[in-house]
Design a protein that fits this description.
alpha+beta; Glutaredoxin; 2 domains; five-stranded mixed beta sheet; three-stranded antiparallel beta sheet; 15 strands; globular
Length: 359
């Protein structure tokens, strides 16, 4: 939801947010909000956001404005999955709704995360579960797009949809705050498990010996990376429990104890606060500027997103990685991976699902 003017048309509003301007107001589903005094051909963003309980971020120097999502209720208040469309590795659009009739496991990963090495294992798991009506969909959260994520997708040779989300739109839509995370979607397109840490039975990153990493790094980079490894190995993960639950759902479907009802899904998703909405708006401007080659102009927006939503590791790690591939200290940011994970505690890196014990 990014614009090049502080006013937008009704058509732009509908295309970007789903709010349809009618004679009696802006409507979405059963909700209608009066817009007295507003010109449908030139809707002023700040006033529009106030009435629709959204937020606005702006970079007037660069001529960019962004709307954050509505800040009412939970991120997932409706179990029906949004109509998500993302490109594949070659830029071809793919609609998640095309998989109706199958159980879907939507998995996020990134080229800046050790979970990139898990892609071949996700493919193995997909081969196993496909005959039970389960489809895996992997989504790379990568502002670098196909250039960054493509080589890892190619190496995994996936039979399943392998998509790329350069804007991190799934963060705002579903409440993704980390990678790897997954969302389970049933045959009717209803979310039955909201975002949670996800592993295909093992975490390949944790199995790689330090010497193997050292071969990939210049000597001066190794000390910081060793500190990163030490902290990463303290993170609580649940690969075996996660896959056991997934196999149970594949077999039992709605009767699986791991398939949550609508209230449980909403309750486990995060509240949609004004700060989180505004963080999404600043992130959107930042990633657009970065992709347009204006990396320095992107930094203040990335930093603001970090301040507003400190629990969102995808915002932090992606931004750190744009200036330091190891996500280490830099002039642009006052935090980095090692210092931040030590501050919050590695045991708190992932929120733990109450029905999946983490070892």
């Amino acid at each position: 939801m990014i614009f090049t003017s502080p006013t937008i048309s009704a058509d732009e509003l509908a295309a970007s947010t789903g709010w349809d301007v009618q004679p009696h107001g802006a409507c979405k589903g059963d909700a209608c909000v009066p817009l007295p005094g507003m010109d449908p051909d030139a809707l002023e963003l700040q006033e529009l956001a106030r009435r629709l309980r959204m937020t606005v971020a702006a970079d007037e120097t660069e001529g960019l404005w962004a709307l954050g999502p509505e800040c009412d209720g939970q991120t997932i208040s409706d179990p029906q999955i949004p109509d998500i469309e993302l490109p594949d590795r070659h830029g071809n659009p793919f609609r998640l709704s095309s998989l109706r009739g199958k159980k879907v496991v939507l998995v996020t990963w990134a080229s800046w995360c050790g979970c990139r090495f898990d892609l071949p294992v996700w493919q193995e798991l997909r081969t196993e579960l496909a005959e039970k009506g389960v489809e895996i969909v992997t989504v790379a959260l990568d502002v670098g797009g196909a250039e960054a994520a493509g080589p890892f997708i190619d190496a995994a040779k996936p039979d399943h949809p392998a998509l790329i989300d350069v804007e991190h739109s799934l963060d705002a839509q579903l409440g993704i705050v980390n990678v790897p995370m997954s969302v389970w979607i049933d045959e009717e397109g209803r979310i039955v498990r909201p975002p949670e840490q996800a592993w295909p039975g093992r975490a390949v990153f944790n199995e790689m010996p330090r010497e193997q990493w050292d071969e990939l790094l210049p000597e001066e980079a190794r000390p910081y990376f060793h500190e990163s490894l030490d902290e990463a190995h303290k993170i609580k993960a649940n690969p075996e429990q996660y896959v056991a639950a997934l196999r149970d759902w594949a077999e039992q479907g709605a009767d699986s104890r791991f398939a949550l009802d609508e209230d449980e899904v909403a309750g486990r998703s995060m509240p949609r606060t004004e700060d989180r909405s505004r963080a999404a708006a600043h992130w959107e401007i930042g990633q657009r500027l970065h992709r347009d080659g204006k990396s320095e102009a992107a930094v203040p927006h990335f930093r603001r997103a970090h301040e507003l939503q400190p629990e969102n590791w995808t915002y932090k790690r992606e931004a750190w990685g744009t200036v330091n591939p190891l996500q280490g200290p830099s002039e642009q940011y006052d935090s980095d991976f090692v210092s931040e994970i030590r501050k919050v505690g590695a045991e708190n890196y992932y929120a733990q699902s109450p029905d999946l014990s983490a070892g």
